[in-house]
Amino acid sequence: MDLTRAAAEALDDADPLAGFRSRFAGTDDDGPDRLLYLDGNSLGRMPLDTPAALARIAEEEWGRGLVGSWASWIDVGTRVGDVIGTGVLGARPGEVLLADSTSVDLYKLLVAAADARPGRDVLVCSADDFPTDRYVVAGVAAARGMTVREVPADVDEGLDPAVLAGALDERVAVVVLSVVAYRSGALADVAAVTATAREAGALVLWDLSHAAGAVTLDLAATGVDLAVGCTYKYLNGGPGAPAFLYVRRELQEQLRQPIWGWFGQRDQFAMGPAYDPAPGIDRFGVGTPPVLAAAAVEVGAALVAEAGIDRLAAKGRAMTDLLVALADACLTPHGTVLASPRDPARRGSHVTLAHPAAWQLTQALVDRGVVPDFRTPHRVRLGPAPLYTRFVDVWDAVDRFRALLEDGAWRDYPQERSRVT
C-alpha cells in the first residue's frame, strides 16, 4: 500500500461518497491546522439540513399548528423507524421503531424475550461488552431470579464463536451481544451466532450501536430476532437522540414488553381501563415520542440511506486499512500496539491503538486538533466516519500523532483520568 499523502488524496479524488462531506457542519476548513474529527463513532457530525428540519417542526408545526400537528406526529416512531430499518439495517417495513433510549429499549426487548422462553433461567452476555448492556442484563436477571453467564472475550479480538457455543445449553433464554465491540471494533458474525443460538433454543438480542450506519447489516436475511441501537453515532441524529429497536416480524405477536404505555396500546385514544398491546411493532412503544429529536434522526438516517450502506461499509474498511498501515509504519516504532482485529473483514469502522500513556496522548491529540477518544485499558480509539471523513484526514491525523510521540509533549499532561471523552 502506498502510504504517501498524495496517495491518500488520490483515494479521496476517486471516492464516490466524497460529495456527502459538504453536507455536514464543520467540514469546510481545508487548512493545515483544521480539526481532524475521528470520533464519529461516539457522536456524529451535524447534517447541514438538521437545523432547518428542527425549525420547521418548532416554528410551523408546533408554533402555528399546535396540537393539530399531532396528525403528522403520531406515527413518527414507525415512520422514522422504517427509514432506519429499510435504508440502513436491511429490515422489512414495520420491523423497526424509534423509541426511548438504547438502555430502555434493551430492557424492554430483553424482558420480552426472556418471557418468551419460559423454563429457561440463564441470560448470556459478553464479559467485554459495553457496560450498560451488562448492567441491564444483570438487573433483569436479579429481578427475575435468573443467572447471568458472562462469556469471556478477548479485549482486542472480540468474542470467539466457539467459546460462545460452549456456553449455550437448554437453560439459556436470551443471548445479548454487540455486532461491533465498542472498544476494539471487533465485528461479530451475526448470521453464524444467530444460527448457533437458535439451535440451542435461545433468542439473540443484538446491540447495533457501533454498527448501524458503518457496516453492512441485513437483519431480515440473516434471521436476526431482536436488536437495538443508538442514532447519535454513525446515524448523526445528535446528542441524546432517541434509539431504535428491531423485532423480526414473525416474533412481534409472541412478545409482550414490560413497560405498558399508551403508545403501545391497541386503541390508544379509547383510554380504556385495561392494557391490550397494539399489533405489530407499535406494541413496543411506551410514551409520547420525542418529535423534535426524531426530526433530527430522520435527516441523519436518510443521508446514510442515500449514500448506501454497502458503499459506506466498503469505505470504512478502506479507511481503517489505511489507518492500520499508517499506524504500523509511523506509530508502532514509538510504542503503540494495534488493539483491533487486523483482518478488515473482522473489524467495524474504528481502530484502537494501545499505549501505556493513552490517556495523556488522547488529551494531547485533542490540543493538536485531532479528536479521538480514550477507552480503558490504556487505549486510543480512532473512528473515521465514512460518510464525511476523508482519507487525507486519516493520513494527517496519524502524522500529527507521530509528531506527538516523537516530541514527547504528551508527558506534560496529567496521568490520572479525570473524565472519559
TrEMBL record:
EC number(s) stated in the UniProt entry for this protein: 3.7.1.3
Pfam families xref list: KYNU_C
Catalyzed chemical reaction(s): 3-hydroxy-L-kynurenine + H2O = 3-hydroxyanthranilate + L-alanine + H(+); L-kynurenine + H2O = anthranilate + L-alanine + H(+)
Known cofactor(s): pyridoxal 5'-phosphate
UniProt: pyridoxal 5'-phosphate binding residues: 102-103, 130-133, 207, 210, 232, 262, 288
Keyword entries, A-Z: Hydrolase, Pyridine nucleotide biosynthesis, Pyridoxal phosphate
Family: Belongs to the kynureninase family.
Subunit structure: Homodimer.
Record protein name field: Kynureninase
Gene for this chain: kynU
